[in-house]
Amino acid sequence: MTLLEVDGLSVTYAGADYKALNDASFTLDTGKTVAVVGESGSGKSTLAHVLAGLLDPTAEMTGRSLSLNGENLLTASRSRWRELRRTQMSMVFQSPIESWNPTRTMLVQVMGGLKAAGRPDLYPSLVELVRRVGIDEPEQRLGDYAHQLSGGMLQRISIASAVVNGPSLLIADEPTSALDSTVQAEILQILGELRNDANLAMVIISHDLTVVNRVADDVLVMYGGKIVESGPTDLVLSDPVHPYTRGLLDSVPRLTDEPRTSLPSMPTGGIPNQGCPFQPRCLLAVAECETTSPPLEIIGATSVACPPALSIRSSVAAS
Amino acid sequence: MSPLLELRNVDKTFQTDRGIVHAVRDVSLSVAPGEVVGIVGESGSGKSTIANLILGLEQPSGGEIMFRDDPLHDWLSGNRRAYRKCVQAVFQHPIQALDGRKRVEWLIAEPLVIHGIGTSASRRDRLKELMVDVNLDHSLLSRYPRELSGGQAQRVNIARALALEPELLVCDEPVSALDVSVQAQILNLLLSIQAARSMAMVFISHSLPVVRHISHRILVMYAGTIVESGDGETISGRPVNPYTRLLMGAVSDDQPLHESSELQTVRDGIPVVGCRFAPRCSVAIDKCVVEEPTLESLTDGHSTRCWRGQELMDLSTIAPEGVT
Q: Do residue A251 and residue B180 have CB atoms under 8 angstroms apart?
């Protein structure tokens, strides 16, 4: 069942002459996880803000559809968004220490949110969830202040409190980037379990392809505000088509590489105002890429916005 | 060949509100001229404290640091500027590492001015060379740090560090704040500069694939001590220490979540007796909680700190999947 539908969304921040998010479309089914991958300036955080209703009010947003559970949110009021964030969706952010008020205990803050949502009765479930995400003495730890807890513990409590009242959508913006790799793997495992048990849909924003590979059913690769490739994670990561996705995958050092050899790296380049955003850095670019914005074309299970790469692929397939 | 840098049983403790913290305990390592030694570990493992000790930004609480066979203490008290000329650093946050009120041209030439090297004309030539070496466009010369991208700013930091032609470059998480595609460029740059100049390097990162990519030799740290050391092939291909294995499982690319190996939560923090990793270890025995293992050599160049090291190595040569 479709939970979230995004169709043709664009965002321009006040005073900017470019679209931070440019014609983004995708759908997310109940209980599924989609990862949004991209680098700084790709528009991935703008997308997260749009989905959570936290876009800067001075930014201009246009689009055909933004709906959750069939409800059109393009025209939703701020109070409706607040209500949605208390009941149907929640967020986990990158920096756990900055997500919490340092002057109040964890419990006061979490219960504040639950009371506002009219669910103070969820305290026992909260304790159980905090234990479940790997914290031994949940009552005591909830009585602590943020600075008394490690980053991993804070992020565990963030996740527990984000899912305690049974949202249908969790938006996680770089939920593990500030954590050590072994802690990161545990947090991802917890998120995966919660998704399975609670039928929770997740949008995970990440620059880390290992993270994406571990949790996401589908992946959206963003560049310069546009979705340039999307599809099932295993397919996109094992057989990428778009030159940016390919470059991104190639540039990550792997444990199976020959050490001390040069990594394939993409040239640098800015994002032009017209044509394909990746064109200045692209080895496949043709004249048309400078003028025409490539459409997202569907091939099999994936969608790719790069006519040259697609024509190479089809000629290879033909021969 | 005598080592360029040597740490002999170095300890570093910090006094905090909650008592004494042993950030680094009994660490011995050596770096030969032209060698890249990688240090991998998580937050709190002591890897950045080691960088700070080597750079003289912290004083060891015990043990000795030698540079070119002379104690670091003597270099710092008698000849600090000469030491700075030999040992330079690149840090994690490229923009914050630069003085925001200075332009790129000054930032790169500043070490030459401080050390009184060359005339203003020769410094200008050197500046141009350095810009070419780190692939920075000349149009960036008059920019301020905030007007640079992370990758450009890190190139400025590298150019600054190279200006004095150091024999040792200490890199503390030099790519972790950068975008993935920029990380590859900076790693390639460090690798080519290191090889071209035969410069020694201490390369610190939390990422095993990154450390493995650039290093000749890898030290794995946990809770202030070295728990395993060896070349990249050994550490990533035939790790023995249970912590290294845990780290490998956590970073391996091809492991979807549902297949990932069992992971132990850090529950009770780090113990003060016995093996520091014992509470998280899936193969710990009674001895591990009472007595701390020492770093023992298994084969030439491969050492591990684990009571069951030899046993685990024998097992892993029989069954590569090993014990978990």
A: yes
